[in-house]
Amino acid sequence: MTAMTMIEAINFTLKKEMERDQRVICLGEDIGKNGGVFRATDGLQAIFGEDRVVDTPIAESAIVGTAVGMAARGLRPVAEIQFFGFIYEAMDQMASQAARLRFRSGGVLGAPMVVRAPYGGGVKTPELHSDSLEGLFLHSPGLKVVMPSSPYDAKGLLTAAIRDNDPVLFLEPMKLYRAFKQEVPEEDYLIEIGKAKVVKEGEDLTVITWGQTVPLVSKVVEQWEQEQSISIEIIDLRTVSPIDEDTIIASVQKTGRAMIVHEAVKTGGPGAEISAMINEKALFHLSAPIVRVTSFDTPYPVPSVEEDWLPNADRISQGIREVLAH
Amino acid sequence: MTAMTMIEAINFTLKKEMERDQRVICLGEDIGKNGGVFRATDGLQAIFGEDRVVDTPIAESAIVGTAVGMAARGLRPVAEIQFFGFIYEAMDQMASQAARLRFRSGGVLGAPMVVRAPYGGGVKTPELHSDSLEGLFLHSPGLKVVMPSSPYDAKGLLTAAIRDNDPVLFLEPMKLYRAFKQEVPEEDYLIEIGKAKVVKEGEDLTVITWGQTVPLVSKVVEQWEQEQSISIEIIDLRTVSPIDEDTIIASVQKTGRAMIVHEAVKTGGPGAEISAMINEKALFHLSAPIVRVTSFDTPYPVPSVEEDWLPNADRISQGIREVLAH
Amino acid sequence: MWIEPNELPVNKVQYLDENGKLTNGAPEVSDDELIAMYKWMVQARVFDQRALKFQRQGRIGTYAPLSGQEAAQVGSAFALERQDWIYPSYREGAALFVHGFPMKNFFLYTMGHLKGTDAEGANVFPVQIIIGAQCLHAVGGAWAGKYQGENSVSVTYIGDGGTSEGDFHEALNFAGVYKLPMVFFVQNNQWAISVPRSKQTASGTIAQKAVAHGITGIQVDGNDVLAVYTTMKQALERARSGQPVLVEAVTYRQGPHTTADDPTKYRNKSDVDEWLAKDPLKRIKAFLLDKGIWNEELEQREFALAEQKVTEAFELAANTPKSKVEDIFEIVYEKKTSQLTEQQQSVSSEGVLK
Amino acid sequence: MWIEPNELPVNKVQYLDENGKLTNGAPEVSDDELIAMYKWMVQARVFDQRALKFQRQGRIGTYAPLSGQEAAQVGSAFALERQDWIYPSYREGAALFVHGFPMKNFFLYTMGHLKGTDAEGANVFPVQIIIGAQCLHAVGGAWAGKYQGENSVSVTYIGDGGTSEGDFHEALNFAGVYKLPMVFFVQNNQWAISVPRSKQTASGTIAQKAVAHGITGIQVDGNDVLAVYTTMKQALERARSGQPVLVEAVTYRQGPHTTADDPTKYRNKSDVDEWLAKDPLKRIKAFLLDKGIWNEELEQREFALAEQKVTEAFELAANTPKSKVEDIFEIVYEKKTSQLTEQQQSVSSEGVLK
Ligand SMILES: Cc1ncc(C[n+]2csc(CCOP(=O)(O)OP(=O)(O)O)c2C)c(N)n1
Ligand SMILES: Cc1ncc(C[n+]2csc(CCOP(=O)(O)OP(=O)(O)O)c2C)c(N)n1
Ligand SMILES: [Mg+2]
Ligand SMILES: [Mg+2]
């Protein structure tokens, strides 16, 4: 066990997986000599050489498309998109190519690959760097989408992602990269993709969230529980596609109330799917409308207003009040 | 009034708008001399010349990006994406650029443009031609998404789209292009973007759909109403973004039951948003879980199985049974 | 100072003129190879004509004819080694067959069958519909091949129109930077659906697009199978040693873009006729006859044989059990998600109240 | 036959050597113009240094320094006419100021203010973050300008790294096909964050990328403001007559990529020093001194004036009322949707139970 930040856990995992499996190759912009703009790949090129930790030209479609080609021919590429907002450039290679290669080849080929990208707001990046676009990929069959909320989860989930035989989009919460340290085992462990984690049990309300809003929700919930006699269950989705329906439904059947918190904009986002899913499977258990606390339906705004735009502590509290009002 | 197919109505509208406004320019692959692979722009180049009906090289990002640049400098481009499945190539220009220009310029510039594309299944196109991806754009603030279901609507909505001062994605149901004729006024009329149409009123169930599933749903509903003593309200969304919440909520408050039919894959699709919206605003009016009848969560499959994959008459009937079972 | 547009000299490689006469000395190609290539071209032509008929009869779906491009496709694929890979677009049946892709499965593809892209062990990537996307897969494939010491070249096929896509350029650039064992084989068939080559790009040739990415380019008469084969051999040799090459084969699409297209809307008969005179089969046949290694009897026998092979492949395809919607849930992921399981089950209970 | 990699001769345009001596005759540039350009360069240098300081003091956000690129930016923008348009990326402050973009608003941009891209009537498109995207907007802009008979050229700025993006090539290709009044101005500052020019592309120069698209290319010493200005004047003339041009200005980013970057991770001091010797301000200053039209007193006065202008602009920005989250709902669409209205209202009732 060592105390690690999330960025250290990611770096450590990449190193371990590259040691373990020659087929693992990292590619992306500035990931080699520079070690990545967030240092996720720091030191890896020195250890594994320029053949396995590859600085690419600036061309996101090519980065993902190359990874698809590599994966189909026996490698296990881990591609980095420097900021998740640039994924649009690679959208065809993500949603039509990586996602569909197994399908399009009638099950003969596959694309065992990972696309890593830092995502999320609250760190005052320039515009178009901070969007939470996981909803687009939830709506793209053939992909898996994983979003860790802690160093421990990051290691277990990234290990699972790299060993998965399907393409995995691995979204790293920028704001949590160095937010806190956690004990992380150096030994091999996997966290199953597709399974949510009940962060804490509760009786009166289920809050579903993932990635960088998990610590924030936990803090707000803690305050509520201290101040009011109420007990709130928190589910960390961990995997946004496929969604762990069983865990969500079981929880809502128990609590009768649900709230979803995410940084993606509201309309058409993952919160909509979760709400619809609960409606389908647990409608008659609900004693209040499901509340979504999300970013507003505008483009990601300029840094000076982002804190008010994101689902912050105030807005989460407001959401809890609302869902409990019924 | 003239009886027109939808493709004729679209062609006619483009002609009218180009006559009316010099700033309207059409661009896209094979839209000029060839008149478009579906003949939507047939004859227009002969009338308006190569300067206003422009055959482009094969580069979707460039087509949309050029339209953004034109729109910002005073033109009103109507760009065609040959098949909607190719929109992924232009995703950045759609979702980061066209959608955000007003926002990114602090409200100073705008992108009054239309992106037209044939979409939808059931016509045995080769793969990657038939996807219904409107859900991606519903989740992209700054865009409007319009999906007509009849020749009359196509004209009124396309006219409104071209005159709109914001970027509009105009999705044309391939299967309905020549499916039937309808009386269409030659005079100017607009159908308001953002307003749904109650196709028929009903008391026991609200079915929400749009685009090419509208006639299909109407047929199935007619049968149900003939065979059972039940009355079903059908809402044709017409605009998928922004969604006309008022019409949907009012209807569900009346009927107490809702079903959504769309060709997009289920998870994370527009049906999820509609379901979540109803949950938020009309939960206590619901007497049954909301049912979504959609395509399955797989890549759009090969032509030989597409009929079973799409929301066909059987599956829609099955959905109605389900929602009425409670 | 100023690099003026199209000042770079580009000389098209050609061995056989339109009448099958040598223009430039004889390349080292054995009689056996010559005959084998011609047979493949015959096979391709027959396949194409039959496929068109099947489509008209409603027995297969949309089809993109290749007639006119047999020399480009056969000449290029015939130069490959077994371990080399093809990353095709949608019009490369002939190249695929030469490289071992079963004709039966090509028919399955046109019938909308899930197994229509199964190469059954041949190194052929699934047919690509998204123009340009295959170039990037070839980059990754070439990279994997190099990394794993396979001594294999990845060859991607694309059309003149496809060179306008950003993906095409990103792929060339990657190939150049990483010195990948790759050949970009562009069939410049003069048309991208209705858009003529001259309106697709202002560059004088497609071959010169290599200059943007610091890699080797070459233009070849794509209706001259000798020129294509010889050039491709050399290109593959370069590629195998880490020098990617862009080959532009100048050819012509004699038929419609696809069976859904009406080329009379956008091109003249005179244009077509001019190119029919340059037909690739006619040319190599004349050369073989001249050489005395081919005759009309062999010709007839070969056409008959080719017909028979097409019939057989088609029958096999037509008799293959149809894809069922239930099958698709099995090939989205390695392991079905619970959502997919639920949806798959709903199919079997279709029409029945759940 | 074979177009070998990088065989095309590309000669860099230069007038002033590193010491400010004429190498190639004197171009026709008046003393007033020379002095005006130098003053803009001083302004740019001072702006850059102050912006860096403001960032370190936490008074502005991330900033991408331009020191070393003053000649490229000022020389190119100074050649523009008022009706011409700039489509910038994120490192073009100097070019923007020359073309009339208010410095105050550039500061607002770095402060994360909604009005940070407002050009207040100058023909400057919003700063673009997505690499390559601006090139396509410039294509559309040039097209609109041509269509509307504006006699204006659209100039897009991009870096060496940006030339690897597909969008860059799609834009060049469109410009070539439609003969648009456009200049692609590439500042090849040797680095794309940590990736050196040599690893970005195998092409010997950026200028030669024009060849792929049949348009004119030219390489110029980007630290020689005389060369940049003169070349750009000619390029604009060509562009105005419908011949698009790709200009590669060879320069150097003296500072970090942005204030968040640590260049010592990836480049040597010796590399930097070599280029500091080629500093663009030093060079033109030496020339002006030599010519006897500049002196140290003017120099000091100009630097003081530049400092003062920066201070004024910064103060104006700092005193501008901050953007409020309520404002953003007004600029998503021309007319707010009902969803946006509801969300906007929820902001004002924040902290209060609805
Ligand atoms: C990304 C994308 N855009 C557009 C199309 C539609 N389309 C199919 S074939 C074609 C023309 C291609 O021309 P070319 O590259 O010259 O190849 P050819 O058909 O002549 O073999 C077009 C525009 C597509 N399949 N993919
Ligand atoms: C599409 C896209 N990909 C990646 C980035 C991240 N990024 C910002 S600047 C930069 C380097 C750009 O280098 P270059 O084009 O040479 O311009 P310079 O910064 O040197 O001025 C990168 C990779 C981005 N902003 N947009
Ligand atoms: Mg072609
Ligand atoms: Mg650079």
Automatic annotation (TrEMBL), chains A, B:
Keyword Oxidoreductase: yes
Keyword field: Oxidoreductase, Thiamine pyrophosphate
Pfam families: Transket_pyr (PF02779), Transketolase_C (PF02780)
One annotated GO molecular function: oxidoreductase activity
Leader sequence residues: none
Source organism superkingdom: Bacteria
CC cofactor: thiamine diphosphate
SMART domains noted in UniProt: Transket_pyr
Transcription regulation is among the record's keywords: no
Domain Transketolase-like pyrimidine-binding: from-to ranges: 4-179
InterPro entries reported in the protein's UniProt record: THDP-binding, Transketo_C/PFOR_II, Transketolase-like_Pyr-bd, Transketolase_C
Protein name: Alpha-ketoacid dehydrogenase subunit beta
Automatic annotation (TrEMBL), chains C, D:
Presence of the UniProt keyword S-adenosyl-L-methionine in the record: no
Pfam families from the UniProt entry: E1_dh (PF00676)
The Dehydrogenase E1 component domain, residue ranges: 38-325
EC number of this enzyme: 1.2.4.1
Keywords assigned by UniProt, alphabetized: Oxidoreductase, Pyruvate, Thiamine pyrophosphate
Cofactor list: thiamine diphosphate
Function (record text): The pyruvate dehydrogenase complex catalyzes the overall conversion of pyruvate to acetyl-CoA and CO(2). It contains multiple copies of three enzymatic components: pyruvate dehydrogenase (E1), dihydrolipoamide acetyltransferase (E2) and lipoamide dehydrogenase (E3).
Any one Gene Ontology BP term: branched-chain amino acid catabolic process
Catalytic activity: N(6)-[(R)-lipoyl]-L-lysyl-[protein] + pyruvate + H(+) = N(6)-[(R)-S(8)-acetyldihydrolipoyl]-L-lysyl-[protein] + CO2
Enzyme class: oxidoreductase
Gene Ontology molecular function: pyruvate dehydrogenase (acetyl-transferring) activity
Listed InterPro entries: Alpha-ketoacid_DH_E1_comp (IPR050771), DH_E1 (IPR001017), PdhA/BkdA (IPR017596), THDP-binding (IPR029061)
Subunit description: Heterodimer of an alpha and a beta chain.
Protein name: Pyruvate dehydrogenase E1 component subunit alpha
